[in-house]
Specification:
Length: about 400
């Protein structure tokens, strides 16, 4: 009898344990498998249903751009047709300087501030009074820190994105880009551009005849005298050793801006174009180098940028790669006397073309990226980011 009771108790315990184990398995499956999948799918479905039918991004040009309210755009307000016309990959954006286009300033997706010059609105309206947490404030600048006139001290935790020439900007605003002719792919500027090679054996009979007709050495166009980089002094040192004609306010010669004759003489008369920057700042390369590369003349560059990130190898001569002015001039003289070596600097024209770009394309695309406005960042100290370690006073070449 006692044995029978123990057996029944054992069977009862076994049944309870089995049921408990089964319940645990069901609970595990429900919580770890079924319930999350149902919940997550429901969240995704709700997200899709709640998506705005009009996902257009509105960008307000809040400050002037060198005195121009609409940043030299074709109208006060431009929309998707404008972005299509400049072949942007994403076009569903509106650019405007009209603060009343929407109900209020806080309704715009992004506000653009030009930080190269002081903001010229009234003393009582430096920044918007109301700011939405989802808004993106963008600091835009194509000038170097040496020519940044807006005081940045009070802009702590103010800007979300930067739109400048620097390669570490959120949106890169460069003067021009090198694009592969075959693929249309933008190669540079970039931190690690994959340039082609092929200059070693390059030869072009037509170019050779053209170069052999050149009679002058160097040329420079400059109207901003006394630059921070001391480029005027460098040119004077070079002039002691070779001929350099200087056009503009800082020289003795004149050629009207945009004149076909100016471009023609670069190709037909001069060997070297001196594209010297006003500041020796990281990534700072202006239109001078790119403009000269439209002609058949070798640009001689002087700046603080790593030019290998911006232009194909053997397409320019970097002054900073020489220790002295004598070494530089000796090399220029060598190329001028050896036209077969000189024309190798134009090998890249068979593989790349120079293209302009609108930074507004990148801004529009970035605003449409997944979670762009929910994943908000702030520049804690925009002045430190912009100035610290960005520029050098002394050049590497001695003069």
């Amino acid at each position: 009898m006692i044995r029978r009771m123990k057996r029944a108790r054992f069977v009862l315990y076994l049944s309870i344990g089995t049921v408990s184990l089964l319940l645990l398995v069901i609970l595990f499956v429900h919580t770890q498998c079924l319930r999350p999948s149902i919940s997550y799918y429901q969240i995704l479905e709700e997200s899709i249903q709640n998506r705005r039918p009009d996902d257009r991004k509105y960008i307000l040009l809040y400050t002037n751009f060198f005195g121009n309210r609409n940043w030299y755009l074709r109208a006060e307000t431009v929309g998707p047709d404008f972005f299509k016309s400049i072949q942007c990959p994403v076009t569903d954006c509106v650019l405007t300087n009209n603060r009343e286009l929407l109900n209020g300033v806080s309704d715009y997706d992004a506000l653009l501030f030009h930080i190269a010059e002081p903001w010229t609105y009234s003393l009582f309206e430096k920044v918007p009074k109301i700011r939405s947490p989802r808004q993106i404030y963008v600091a835009a600048n194509m000038e170097s820190p040496a020519h940044t006139k807006h005081l940045l001290e009070g802009d702590h935790d103010f800007f979300n994105w930067t739109m400048t020439y620097r390669l570490d900007s959120d949106i890169i605003w460069n003067y021009n880009y090198f694009v592969e002719i075959d693929t249309g792919y933008i190669v540079g500027p970039a931190d690690r551009p994959q340039w082609r090679t092929g200059w070693e054996n390059y030869f072009n009979e037509t170019l050779l005849e053209l170069v052999q007709g050149k009679t002058k050495m160097g040329v420079q166009f400059v109207s901003h005298c006394g630059a921070f980089s001391r480029r005027d002094e460098l040119v004077r040192e070079i002039q002691r050793l070779m001929e350099v004609d200087v056009y503009g306010k800082c020289g003795t010669m004149e050629c009207p801006r945009g004149s076909p004759r100016c471009a023609q003489m670069l190709t037909e008369e001069y060997h070297f174009y001196f594209a010297f920057e006003n500041s020796l700042c990281r990534d700072y390369i202006t239109e001078k180098m790119y403009n000269s590369m439209d002609s058949y003349i070798i640009p001689v560059v002087f700046g603080g940028a790593d030019y290998t990130k911006f232009a194909p190898p053997r397409s320019y001569i970097d002054v900073q790669q020489f220790k002295t002015v004598h070494q530089l001039v000796d090399y220029l003289d060598y190329l001028a006397r050896n036209p077969r070596e000189y024309i190798k600097y134009f090998w890249w024209k068979e593989h790349y073309r120079i293209s302009g770009d609108q930074p507004f394309c990148q801004l529009c695309r970035k605003l449409h990226e997944i979670g762009a406005q929910e994943r908000t960042q702030y520049y804690r100290n925009i002045k430190q980011w912009w100035f610290d370690g960005a520029c050098e006073r002394d050049a590497r070449i001695k003069f």
